[in-house]
Amino acid sequence: MKYWLAFFTGIFVGFITLFGAYYYFTHSLPEPESVVPSSLVIQYSDGTPFYLPRALWYDLSKYPQELINTLILSEDEDFYNHMGIDTLGFLRAIYVTLFRKTLQGGSTITQQLARSLYLTQHRTIERKVREFFVAFYLEKIRTKDEILELYLNTAYMGNGIYGFGTAAKYYFGKEPGELTLPEIAILVNTVKSPENFNPKALRGNYNRAKIVLKRLLNEGVISDKKFDDYVNELGSVNVKKVTDFSYNEQVFWRCIEELKNIGFSLDYLRKGFVVKTTLNKKYTSYVEKFSEENNGVLVVNYLTGEILAYFGEGINKGRRQTGSLIKPLYYYKALLDGYNLDTKLFDMPIKIGDWTPQNFEKNFTGQVTLEDALVHSKNVPSVNLYLMMGDNNIRNFLINELKISGYYPPDLTLALGTLETSHEELFKGFSAILNGGIVISPRMIDEIIGNDGMVYYRASPKIINVITPEKRSAYEASSMMIKLLREVVVKGTGIRANIPGKYIVGKTGTAAQFAWFMGADGATLMIVSKDGRDLLGGRDVAPLWKKIAREISIGSTPFFVSKDYTKVEVLKNNPLKYIDYNYLVEKIKKGEISLNEMVSLLKTFDQQSMIEFLSYVNQVSQEITLQLWERLRGD
């Protein structure tokens, strides 16, 4: 009884140990389909490949029976009979490893699959034990045919290629069903040592493939005559040049993110799906040709939101300061609120706390029109416009109406573009301006097609907001802004982007470490950035924008906008309190600004603004105030 008790106790302990080890090694494993090499194909809009995977998925039915039989005879003749493990081979490998201090291979197809999906190729006892349990796990959760299909599609075949179907395509230019038996023998032999025995590495020296053919002969699958014929054919097998797998990673991951957002995970799509993008191959080639590493380029059909070209880092979720590229976005709000193109804005030195914004030219003109302020990208009048409209109102408009995400600084420097955001976010704002108040979301995915040919998804334009009309309709405000942006290109800061004979609108932007140019015609918008110091949007980016725009024909599509607009009276809170009166009085005293110039300026003010201005000057210098007042009375 004591011996029987010890015997059954040993069996029980052994069973518990095996079960515990099985649970330990397999309980957290993901589904095998989620870790197979991706066979997702991504295409340009014309159907040509943008991203060719190193693994193409083929259903088991697509593989010829000759290939399946040859593989099983060569690698695992008992495949359909065992439970995933070659028990004798496994014990032999452990014995050799322990007592002869060498590592021995020898694995079933299921064990090889377990190794390629979940383990490493390093030969250690621990890996061999893991392989044992994972192989058993695979046999438990999948049928033999499913395991065979997984293996055929995931076996490593050298040169970064996975799967027999992929190898057939990239080594021989054939579909799996078109392979000859000599080609099958070469591929089956490849799995023995993928980097050494793949067709490209062997360069026509396919003597090792004779071993595979010899096995078929010994098993009676082929005759002596056929064997000799096939051996002779080995010498005439031609190998194609292996396809270049390089691709733009920024575009790839942008696609993957959008796919996730519409409900398609990479794990789901990796099994043979084709994703057709909106990317224009021709446009992409020109953008890549002319752009450098520190450039970011986004080309979009703003009527539909289709991304036509995409280059550089941070285009989707980057954080670059916008500089003056922000100005049209809140000037658009001003036009909606009833401001006119000839509305007068103060252009005098101002001080807000310790902040003293300056015009690029370092001068002041007293007053300018709203049109001139934007066309020539003047900072001080823009800040004054911002103050008149109200910081909270503009922030609300940018965030909730134009739907622009990013980092918004908690101060008034936002007026000059300290907003940190991306090309795609800026696109949403400019799409509203160019579309008559309709905010479009940019998109890169057009269709998703399964390996069964079924269309699983087809995109359509995504409207994310329609601008609420204020004193003007969004369409009329857009017409006015398009006129302003046209003047920017014709005679303003964006003149270097002008293409004679083309109707282009645009705007420059310059920040501490970034420069921008946004330009568009009646259908296509392109935003170009350049990273670096001491850059100017008009000088350093607009010429690049022009070079690309010429090639992709931006400027050929007309705008459908109103040429006239209705003038609206709007009550404005003139921000006279922010003028730097100490600076102004000092300039007058030094003779750098004459009293006559100041009088001429004051005559353009309404009476209330004139009295308010003089009262502020009086707090600094009663003498200067008196002189100004006397000259005004004398005139």
Task: Explain how this protein is built.
- By secondary structure, the protein is an alpha+beta fold.
- The chain has four domains: 1-29; 54-234, Biosynthetic peptidoglycan transglycosylase-like (Penicillin binding protein transpeptidase fold, Orthogonal Bundle), CATH 1.10.3810; 286-552, 3-Layer(aba) Sandwich (Beta-lactamase); 580-634.
- The protein is 46% helix and 11% strand.
- The chain has a five-stranded mixed β-sheet with strand order 2-1-3-11-12, with helices on one face.
- The longest helix has 25 residues, at 2-26.
- The chain is elongated and about 120 Å long.
- The N and C termini lie far apart (129 Å).
- Residues 297-517 form the Penicillin-binding protein transpeptidase domain.
- This is peptidoglycan glycosyltransferase.
- It is found in: Cell membrane.
- Its EC number is 2.4.99.28.
- The chain crosses the membrane at residues 5-25.
Please sum up the structure shown.
The protein is of the alpha+beta class and 635 residues long. It is 46% helix and 11% strand.
Task: Give the key terms.
635 residues, alpha+beta, Penicillin binding protein transpeptidase fold, Beta-lactamase, 4 domains, five-stranded mixed β-sheet, five-stranded antiparallel β-sheet, 26 helices
Strand ordering within the main sheet: 2-1-3-11-12
Q: Indicate the CATH topology of the largest domain.
A: Beta-lactamase
Distance between the termini: 129 Å
As a whole number of angstroms, the C-alpha radius of gyration is 36 Å
Number of helices: 26
Overall 3D form: elongated
**Total domain count:** 4
SSE-based structural type = alpha+beta
Enzyme class: transferase
Transmembrane segments: 5-25
Domain Glycosyl transferase family: 56-216
Subcellular location: Cell membrane
